[in-house]
Amino acid sequence: MIVITGQIYTDPETLPKLYARLKSLCDPSRQEDGCLFYHMGMEDEAKGTIMAMEGWRDQASLDAHLALPSIKALLEDFEGKFSNDVQIHEVSGSQRMLV
């Protein structure tokens, strides 16, 4: 399993448009083959920080997601208007999450 967590940073003018676009991708992304979870949340509106959490069955599923026209369009439309601090974790079947 591939788990992606992190923050997306943008300016106050871009924040509403970027956040709305990211949220609009959540439901379609959750329907993709290999998507285990896909969430975007407003972490700190004053600082322009969005929280991202995604889970994918494998690298092939994530690669297919990143190749979608909707994801490519998002990246093109907001190119240079955000930065991120994202961590990608590979979780094996033998690892257990603590609750």
From TrEMBL:
Keyword annotations of the record: Monooxygenase, Oxidoreductase
MF-aspect GO terms: monooxygenase activity
Domain ABM, residue spans: 2-91
Annotated Pfam families: ABM (PF03992)
Superkingdom of origin organism: Bacteria
Protein name (record): Antibiotic biosynthesis monooxygenase
Species the sequence originates in: Sphingobium phenoxybenzoativorans
